[in-house]
Structure formats: C-alpha cells, structure tokens
Amino acid sequence: MIAAVAGDGLLSPANCTFGVTALAKQQMNTMPDPTAGVSDAALLVAFARGDAQAARDLTARLLPRVLAQATRMLTNQAEAEDVAQEAMIRLWKIAPDWQQGHAQVSTWLYRVVANLCTDRLRKRRGSVSLDQIAEPEDSTPNAATRIQTQTRLRALSDALAQLPERQAEAVALRHLEGLSNPEIAQIMDISVRSVESLTARGKRALVDILAGRKAELGYEDD
Amino acid sequence: MKMTDPKDDMLDDLFAEARALSPQPSDALVARVLADARPPERAITSVQTGIFTRLLDVIGGWPAAGGLVAATLAGVWIGVAPPASVEDFTATLLGDQVAVGFFDTDIAFDMETLADG
C-alpha cells in the first residue's frame, strides 16, 4: 500500500522517542492511575456492564503498549495507529464474553496485535518499499541520523514481512517486545520448543534477507 | 546459539533500535478508540428487557414456552378428534354415549307422516 508508507505515514520525531528506554518503563503509564490494583479483566467486565470510565481507564492503560507493539513491527505510524485502533475495537467486542481467570487481557492483546501486524506485513509484500520512495524533507538537527534510523527500522520491518507469519510473530514477540519464550508460547498457544524453533529459524532468515543491505544500512563489511 | 556473525550483530542492533521506540498515542487516536468504546449491545438489551422477555423468563424461557404450545395444540386436537380409547374412557367415566342432534327428531317424523298422507 503505497499511500501507507509515504508522507505522514513515516514515524515522526514528535511521535516517537528514540533512546535507551527500558521496556518496563515504556509500558508504565506515567499518569497517576486511580484504578491501580484493579486488573485489566475487572475493568473489561465493568466496561461490558456499561461503565464508560472503565473504557477510558483501559485505553489509558493498554493503548500505549498496543501502539508500541504495532509500531515496532510495522515502522509506520499510520498503519500502527490503524492496527492499535482495530485491536481495541476487538477488545470492546469481546468484553461481554470475557471470562476472568481464563486468560490475561495483555496476553490476548499481544496475540491480536501480532496477528493484525502480520496481516499488514503480508499485504506489504511486493509493494513499493521505503527506499523506492523519496524521503520527506526534514531540516531539523540530526535529520540525517533520524532518517538513517527510520531506514534501518523500515528495512527490519520489510524483512519481517518476508518471513512466514508464525516466524515473524515469534521473532517480533521475542526480539521487539522482549518477551520470554514461555510467555510467547502462551500468546501463540504453542510449546516452548516450537517458539525456540520459530525464533531461531526466523532470525537466521532475517540475517540472510538483510545481508545484502548491510552497507546501505550503515554497517560496514569487515 | 551464540551469534558471532557481524551480520547478526547488525540484526541485534536493529532489534534494540526497534525496542527503543516508545510512541505515545496522539489525542486523535485516543478519541478514535474511545469513540469505538460503545457499551456492548448485550449490555444494552439486558437493561431494556421487554414484557415478553420477562414473561418468558417467568415460565422458564423458550424451551418451556415450546412445551406449553405443544401441550395446547395436543389438547385441541384431542378435543376435535378424540381417539377411541379416550371415548371409551369418557363413556366409562360419564355414562353411556349421548347423541346430540341439532334438529328435533319429532319434526322429521311429522314430515314423514305428512308426506305419506
């Protein structure tokens, strides 16, 4: 989808923070949370009973993480926002059927976002990649560094798009979200050994796909 | 597996750069998400239950209502065309069979007399 990767679809500095930020810190809401101690599932049940405040609390709590996961996989702001919105729509829809204690909301959301992203990545195959599109004008300081970072991340996302979907999901959950293999096994509903196999094969495939772009991405050959 | 290939180092760098992304939802996105967060239909319908639904709940729901309808139809049918066993049973219970006519038999007799002259 050409429109999605051009222009305002690019990650903009105003919306993304590049830097050394611990994953746990990213997932914390810096605003005071009056519902601290109330589980996501309890809030979801409250929403299903018509509590509008529960929807606001869930959005404040979950949307940042959902958006971050989608952004890391897609490296495209517009697409990531669409995926985040769609994931939240699915959360609202499943609310009346949610059974507390059966699964964690966060686990369910990881799976939904991963699936939505791999759907997007599959559609991206064969479409025009970023390096075939003129870079937007950026005259801010460190613009070259930022563009180089965006190019590298887009290359990674495009390489993920070349992987079989299960491999792409496992690699993204392991290496982009920093989840443990048992957590990924629970999210993908497979065994830990299967996760290990998928991530290993996926990572090897990524190395092969990106091998030819090493110099272009700013990595010198030895 | 230990990754010593420089190309793997590049991949690890890319992973680290991607993990460092921490986009904050824009106000517009939050508004879109909250606009989608309508109370589920099931919650609305459970509040707006009608009289018919409440009656159904009183008698035990659709299965009970189906049983009631079947029993009513069976009763009507037995009344219209009673099987022989039912007729025997009612005869035993209520006495001999009683014939009911719409016309007085005496009138028919008189008509025959008139016709014969």
Topology at a glance:
The complex is a heterodimer of chains A (222) and B (117).
Chain A: H1 2-5, H2 23-27, H3 40-48, H4 52-74, H5 77-94, H6 105-124, H7 143-162, H8 165-176, H9 181-188, H10 192-211
Chain B: H1 6-19, H2 27-36, H3 41-47, H4 51-59, H5 61-80, H6 84-94, H7 105-116
User: Would you list the SSEs of chain A in sequence order as H and E?
Assistant: HHHHHHHHHH
Quote the distance from N terminus to C terminus of chain B. 126 Å
Mind telling me the C-alpha Rg of chain B?
A: 41 Å
Could you tell me the number of beta strands of chain B?
0
What does this structure look like?
The complex is a heterodimer of chains A (222) and B (117). Chain A has 10 helices and no strands. Chain A is mainly alpha-helical and 222 residues long. Chain B is mainly alpha-helical. Helices cover 71% and strands 0% of the residues of chain B. Chain B is built from 7 helices and no strands. Chain B is rod-shaped, with a radius of gyration of 41 Å. Chain B starts with 5 loop residues before the first helix and ends with a helix. The N terminus of chain B is likely disordered. The chains are: A mainly alpha (222), B mainly alpha (117). Chains A and B meet through α4, α5, α7 and α10 of A and α1, α2 and α3 of B.
